């Protein structure tokens, strides 16, 4: 007795792709694509849109076909059997063949779904990268705060014993550039106090008002257009003419 799964309408299309890809069985396809037999059955049913984007992408890779082609092939109405060759009605044959053709509405729906899947994959990738970067930057905060200070002191003092460390710190600077991480202001520079991006050091918190002159003591950073953490600053004293 034949299995009920043998009647899945898109089984021939899937077997054809499997044959071209050299995959001998549905179990082998499931193993190669890292999906379940239930997900394979959804292709055979023509219900590919029930699957997650990642599963569709892995199936497409295993079958050597694009996500768009996979969605177009295994979604929509089930294929219709060929017309009865004994029928002499040309009109009947024409009518029974009509469902085999995608209508403009079906094509538009498939295209929109494909574009939605593409956007979803891109968004998930971007969010994953940003999440990893954010976690790394939070762990590096103590080093990032003092890195410009270390580099400034070392470069201003040629005989400083730690000068040989500078080349080893440059890759970190390049990494921050690649991640679009920038300092708020150079160490020792002056600016008007802005509590949104400046953090007063403990001893001077009650002495400075917004707009007062301050000097940057420890670096603060932007991550793209977002504030990562504020620069630590102190007020500029009347007789304070040189950065320290």
TrEMBL record:
Composition skew (Polar residues), residue ranges: 85-107
GO BP of this protein: protein folding
Protein name (record): Helix-turn-helix domain-containing protein
Domain HTH cro/C1-type: 14-71
Pfam families per UniProt: GrpE (PF01025), HTH_26 (PF13443)
A GO molecular-function annotation: protein-folding chaperone binding
Entry annotated with the keyword Coiled coil: yes
Coiled coil: 107-134
InterPro entries hit by this protein: Cro/C1-type_HTH, GrpE, Lambda_DNA-bd_dom_sf
Source organism of the structure: Thermoleptolyngbya oregonensis NK1-22
Source organism superkingdom: Bacteria
Region annotated Disordered, chain positions: 78-107
Keywords: Coiled coil
